[in-house]
């Protein structure tokens, strides 16, 4: 790769940088930037003061990207349900008659495939919570409630806490989840686990139990004055007007658990675990992995209340590349920056809208194409705590 060394002279200092003509892309106002997916640039800190507004970003997006189609959104629900049924049919009918040891190899394949497609269905339920499914809020809530309840997620409870997360992204004082520790607050067990086996254990624990524990105990979430969870209508997470719908979410889960009991009575616990239980656990794994990588990265700034504002927080996220799973997961993986800026754009317009705002975002947009397992381990190793920026007047960054 041909690189030209450029020496830039400033009034009081000299900066050395490298420009690669083949990796430039346009910024707003005709400038240039390095491709943010390049390894030598991906860990560079995201700037903190955007020269554009949310209105500027919306103007750059084609008008049709804001349009929600009930028919088109419903197609994706039906599509995912049909694919999930095909996986279930094949597993139920053919895996039990496979000779040893093929059956033991076939089950993990089924679990991965089914968890992937069900995560895509979960993503559609998540869109319903953002009113991105149709033009009718009651339809969005009905579809989201059914889909999330079937996947053991309290729809309204999570919708409201997730809305708070979008309203306070990367605020150390008010964000709802993925709030990093300050160096002085790092716990003893974090230090003990700061080694390769410990990181693997931490990742496995986070991926498998992270979401259930977040719902049950608000682990890694905002610190309230008392115990908080997603099932108590009186939890401090929720406002007075939200409490009835939180109770409705509980009833949805009770209905799902009753259906599981009936299946266990009819088919047996092992069958229900293999066909349904493990894939739903896989949905939790995918969900935590995706959100963890979206909000945990060496380039992302965090802000205390003296420096935080909404657009700063919304820009402090990063897109990830999950390869062929991007499409299965309805592109939620590599359109997350857009999603935090304009959350009601449907997933089938998200890539076009993301590409439309990238020239405006310039160096404020990042996508990390590091292989997922490598990225997981790197973030677990490097992203332990936060400190105020060195040599900066902005001590709240």
UniProtKB/TrEMBL annotation:
Protein name (database record): Fatty acid desaturase domain-containing protein
Gene Ontology terms, MF aspect: oxidoreductase activity; oxidoreductase activity, acting on paired donors, with oxidation of a pair of donors resulting in the reduction of molecular oxygen to two molecules of water
Fatty acid desaturase domain segment(s): 106-365
Localization: Membrane
Entry keywords, A to Z: Membrane, Oxidoreductase, Transmembrane, Transmembrane helix
Pfam families for the chain: DUF3474 (PF11960), FA_desaturase (PF00487)
GO process terms (BP): lipid metabolic process
GO CC, alphabetical: membrane
Record-annotated membrane-spanning stretches: 74-91, 103-124, 270-293
Pathway note: Lipid metabolism
Species whose genome carries this gene: Lactuca sativa (Garden lettuce)
Residue intervals of the Fatty acid desaturase N-terminal domain: 49-85
InterPro entries, sorted: FA_desaturase_dom, FAS_N, Fatty_acid_desaturase
Family (UniProt): Belongs to the fatty acid desaturase type 1 family.
